[in-house]
Backbone:
């Protein structure tokens, strides 16, 4: 165990965390990492029920449980947060990670607003709902909590396609910047982790490609060579943001020095 691991173990010991989109990909990797670093309970929320229950069981039901939640539905988000506090006494960390990519390569000239609305319902509205309800219970419980949102490098650059997705991640960054200012007076930190393109089960299904093929494409997005971005790299960044007592309003790029299109 490294010195940094010992520090993080102390900082997350006894904490209660919610991770949306926790049944696979970045969310699953973060749930496992949080459990390793001392959280008392990690509640993973997703719409992939079978996978969610499997992940919770593999981590250990004494350390992790699963709740079905569609983040686009405010009642479900509110219930997720309030039930967590009722069962476990508090909420210290919200990792608002659930999101989707656009199914098309639309440019602004081709925008299909039915698809646009679907992407924004989850990536922007859903993210705002998670921040809103997590912050409310943290304020009420006088918890100096940590909220981390999953953004994207597309919030730092324009993009040649997937306009709706790019716009939705800019909205996430705006949410983080506003919330960090507004919630700082309560001692609540709000940050964003913004990965480059990487291979996850979700992106593999979306693109209709194998994980290996997606990894090859993702490697072209970064100037840093010799290592491919994976979910553990992102989870490590989330752990830092969750465990640091002073960083707030920050967009932590996990991009290997992104090559903008």
Residues:
């Amino acid at each position: 165990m490294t010195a940094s691991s010992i520090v993080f173990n102390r900082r997350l010991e006894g904490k209660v965390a919610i991770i949306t989109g926790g049944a696979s990909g970045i969310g699953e990797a973060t749930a496992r990492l949080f459990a390793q670093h001392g959280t008392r309970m990690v509640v993973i929320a997703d719409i992939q029920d079978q996978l969610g229950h499997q992940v919770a069981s593999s981590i250990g039901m004494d350390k992790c449980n699963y709740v079905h939640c569609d983040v686009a539905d405010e009642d479900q988000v509110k219930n997720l947060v309030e039930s967590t506090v009722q069962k476990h006494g508090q909420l210290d960390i919200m990792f608002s990670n659930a999101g989707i990519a656009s199914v098309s390569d639309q440019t602004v000239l081709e925008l299909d607003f039915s698809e646009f609305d679907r992407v924004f319902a989850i990536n922007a509205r859903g993210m705002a709902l998670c921040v809103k309800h997590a912050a409310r219970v943290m304020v009420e419980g006088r918890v100096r909590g940590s909220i981390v949102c999953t953004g994207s490098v597309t919030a730092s650059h324009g993009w040649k396609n997937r306009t709706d997705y790019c716009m939705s991640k800019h909205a996430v960054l705006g949410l983080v910047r506003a919330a960090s200012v507004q919630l700082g007076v309560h001692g609540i930190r709000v940050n964003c982790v913004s990965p480059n393109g990487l291979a996850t089960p979700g992106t593999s299904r979306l693109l209709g490609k194998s994980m290996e093929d997606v990894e090859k494409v993702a490697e072209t997005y970064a100037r840093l060579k010799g290592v491919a971005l994976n979910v553990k790299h992102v989870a490590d960044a989330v752990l830092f943001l969750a465990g640091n007592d002073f960083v707030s309003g920050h967009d932590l790029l996990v991009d290997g020095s992104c090559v903008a299109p």
User: Anything to note?
Assistant: DSSP finds nine helices and seven strands in the chain. Residues 3-8 have pLDDT under 50 and may be disordered. Strands lie at 16-20, 41-46, 64-68, 93-96, 146-150, 189-195, 251-254.
